[in-house]
Structures are given as C-alpha cells and as structure tokens.
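Students often ask why inverse folding is considered easier than folding. One informal answer: many sequences map to the same fold, so there is more than one right answer. In these notes we will look at a single instance of the problem. The structure comes first.
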C-alpha cells in the first residue's frame, strides 16, 4: 500500500498470506542466521572523531541505504543523503539508494548472507519483525547516535532533541536502543471541518453527542463513520485511546503485557459496546466491511462519511482525492461519560517510520550519521513540507506553513502533551496478534455485525493468551 507506514500498518501482503492467498518470505530464516555473519562483510575502518564528525565515520566510505517507498515516498531521504555527501565530499557518488515496498523479500536474504544495508527504513506490508531482529542480535545499538551532539546545537545530544517517548519506543529489553522512529504520528478520529460547518455541526466531545450527530447525519444521507473494512486494524487508532480514556492508561498496559483477562476489563467492554452501537444503528457507511484503506478514504473525502479512524499520514496519502476546501482535521476520542479516568483530549501519539542499522552492516557509523543529518532542522523541515507529517525532532515546524490536517494534528498534540498521550505497544511488539488476529478476526467481525462485543472480547483474550503461551514469540513488558 503506498502509505506512510508507521508500523507496517497496511499489512496487505501479510493478511493475504494469512488467508492462504500468497506466500511471503518470513523472518523465520533469521533463526538460522549465525550472529557472527559480520565476517562476510568486513566493516569499514573508523574515521577520525571531530566536531564535524562526532561519530568518527569513515569520510570516504560508501553508504548503502534502503527506504520504504510508501506514502512518504523516498525523496526526503534522497535530499538528506545529498546533505550527507555535502558534509563529507569524498562520499560523493558513493551513496547507494534503493526504494522498495518489498522490504522483507529484498532484505531477508541479505541479512542471512551477512551483507545487509547500512540503514533501512523498515516499514510497510513486508516490514521485518523487530522482535526477531532484536532477539537474533541483528541490529546495532543506536545509543552512540543518541549520545552524539545534535546537528544544529552541539550543546544538546541527539536524544535531547527528540519528542517524548521516541527513544523508549526503540527499546525492547535493557537500555539498548535498536530502532529510531523518524516520523511522529498523531492517531485519532479524522474529519472535514468544512463538512461539519456546512451543516452547523460541532465535533462531538461526548459519546451521546456522537450518536446524536450520527443520527442527524443519517437523515441527511451521510454516514457517521467509515473505516478500512478489509484491514480493520485501523479501528484501534481511535479505539485504543478511547479505551485508555475510559479506564486509564493501565488498561492498555495490561493489554500490551498480555495479562490474563486484560481484554475483559470494564473499559474494554464499554468501548466495544459503544463502537458496536455505531454499526447496530446503521451509522457506518454501507459496504464499509468490503472497503480497503484507499476506498474508505476516498469515500470519506467525497463526504459520504463524517469520520474515519486514521493516523496523520492520511493527509499526504489522500492529497490526490481531497477536495480543496476539505479543511482536514483530527479529533480526540469522545468522552464516554463523566466516570472516564482520563479527560477529553486524550490521544494516541507515537513515533513512526522505523529506521534500523543492521549489526553486520559494512558502514554502520555512516548509517547513524545519516540519521543524525535527517534529525537536523533542514532535513526535518524538508520532510514536514514534503509529506505533511511531523518528525520525531521536537520542533522543526517554526516558520513553515502547515497543511490543515498537520496543523490540526500538531495543535491536538500540543494540547495533550504530556499528560494526555498514550502509546500502546501491541502493534510493534506483536504485529501478527494486533493485525491479523485482534484487528481482522475480532474487531473486523464485530464491526461487520458478525460478532457481539462480548464474543469479541473473548476472542481477543483467546488470541492474547495464545501469544503469551507461545514460546517462539519473544515477550516484552512495560517497565
């Protein structure tokens, strides 16, 4: 899916594989990959450490970069590579750049052969499984990068320039940081300000108001909601922060930790019943269970539905079909009632677009230096303007005009930060559980009217318990 892919969200290929339609090379092959394969690709010699070269990269060595070619495209990376070559002129013409949507197919053989690239944007439908890469010791610890002086202000370390939670997202066990999330995604309920204003409607801050608005919209021939019914793991983008708002962030922590009965929490029950009411009362766009992500977004752009659960990549992805006066915006989940544990404005916001430096890369320091360049203000602003997304650099929007959806996302984040932001980890710790099982086989069935909320809760818990008992799956927990 040409997409911005924060955690391989649009898992078209994986889902097809799960349904037996196609076969996909898996990362299981890495289980037989010797951790000492670096011998096959001798790493380049280190360079001389200096203020300009704090990571002591080899200033004349080649660099091998692979970027996921989704909704963000790859021009932002090419532009950063040009800055890298400008800083180190002897690398001119030696930066190899490849863009692909077939990350796993293309790169698993290279990992197994001990010849991986120096920097990878590990995203998309064929995103390589982080748990496997970490447990098989295939990645470089990025703390040297994080502790290096930032590009624009040498008095600050790179880690001190990043948005809250970004460093922690790259940790799995211990203090090592294996992944650097470059984008920063705001998830929520997306809508058109102009469509609401046309009918004199307000964004609903309570669930009762949501139901009233959906009823009014239905009378006008407009559906309340749509979503990618073929890939219903989009539903959690608004559902998970809704659960946290009702029951507190600890409800999501229990789910992430695969705790027994986590999915039977009263907050989960209340949230599921609320979403189920949308479909029972006919407030979901007819035919939604059969739509993919593009089709649902087009229908939303055309004003056939008011709301869609999504992430802030959606503005860039839909730019070809979004009307000029659409005035895209994102809202926080509505309050269920006065007993909610968290206030209105609670959102899910987290790092996205995960970059990794393989342990057996030929030039790992060069890969980290390119990331340092990308986290400079010039490259960050270029990224923001090109793809209408925030980056993990805390700031970077000063002096540039933001597209409507991005401006709305930033405003929502600023109002929420730091006390009203949650960051569920299920979708990057347990990709298959989150998408194919809970997303498709449970939530998708409930929202299509084929499963009750109670049955959906039981199914989610069953899937989580199976994962918890699977010794082949590396387990992670909130600290």
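Output (designed amino acids):
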């Amino acid at each position: 899916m040409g997409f911005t892919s924060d955690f391989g969200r649009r898992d078209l290929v994986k889902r097809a594989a799960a349904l037996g339609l196609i076969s996909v090379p898996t990362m299981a092959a890495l289980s037989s990959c010797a951790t000492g394969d670096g011998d096959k690709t001798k790493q380049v010699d280190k360079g001389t450490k200096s203020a300009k070269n704090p990571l002591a990269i080899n200033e004349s060595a080649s660099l091998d970069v692979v970027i996921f070619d989704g909704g963000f495209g790859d021009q932002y990376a090419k532009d950063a590579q040009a800055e890298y070559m400008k800083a180190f002129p002897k690398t001119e013409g030696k930066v190899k750049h490849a863009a692909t949507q077939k990350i796993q197919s293309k790169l698993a053989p290279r990992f197994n052969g001990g010849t991986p690239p120096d920097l990878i944007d590990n995203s998309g439908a064929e995103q390589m499984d982080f748990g496997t890469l970490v447990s098989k010791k295939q990645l470089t610890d990025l703390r040297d990068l994080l502790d290096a002086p930032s590009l624009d202000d040498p008095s600050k370390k790179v880690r001190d320039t990043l948005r809250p939670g970004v460093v922690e997202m790259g940790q799995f066990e211990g203090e090592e940081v294996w992944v650097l999330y470059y984008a920063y995604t705001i998830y929520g309920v997306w809508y058109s300000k102009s469509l609401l204003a046309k009918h004199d409607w307000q964004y609903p801050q309570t669930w009762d108001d949501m139901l009233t608005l959906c009823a009014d919209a239905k009378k006008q021939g407009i559906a309340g909601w749509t979503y990618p019914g073929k890939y219903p793991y989009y539903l959690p983008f608004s559902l998970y922060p809704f659960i946290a708002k009702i029951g507190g962030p600890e409800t999501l922590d229990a789910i992430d930790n695969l705790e027994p009965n986590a999915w039977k929490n009263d907050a989960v029950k209340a949230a599921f019943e609320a979403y189920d009411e949308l479909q029972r009362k006919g407030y979901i766009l007819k035919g939604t269970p059969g739509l993919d992500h593009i089709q649902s977004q087009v229908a939303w752009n055309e004003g056939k539905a008011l709301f869609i659960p999504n992430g802030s990549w959606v503005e860039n992805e839909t730019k070809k079909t979004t009307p000029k006066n659409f005035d895209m915006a994102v809202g926080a989940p509505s309050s269920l009632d006065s007993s909610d544990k968290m206030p209105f404005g609670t959102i899910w916001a987290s790092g996205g677009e995960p970059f990794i430096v393989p342990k057996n890369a030929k030039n790992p320091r060069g890969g980290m230096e390119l990331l340092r360049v990308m986290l400079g203000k010039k490259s960050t602003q270029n990224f923001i303007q090109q793809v209408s997304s925030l980056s993990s650099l805390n700031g970077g929007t000063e002096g540039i005009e933001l597209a409507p959806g991005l401006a709305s996302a930033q405003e929502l984040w600023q109002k929420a930060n730091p006390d009203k932001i949650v960051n569920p980890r299920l979708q990057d710790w347990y990709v298959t559980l989150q998408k194919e099982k809970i997303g498709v086989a449970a939530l998708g069935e409930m929202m299509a009217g084929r499963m009750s909320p109670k049955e959906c809760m039981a199914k989610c818990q069953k899937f989580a318990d199976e994962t918890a008992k699977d010794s082949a799956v590396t387990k992670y927990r909130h600290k």
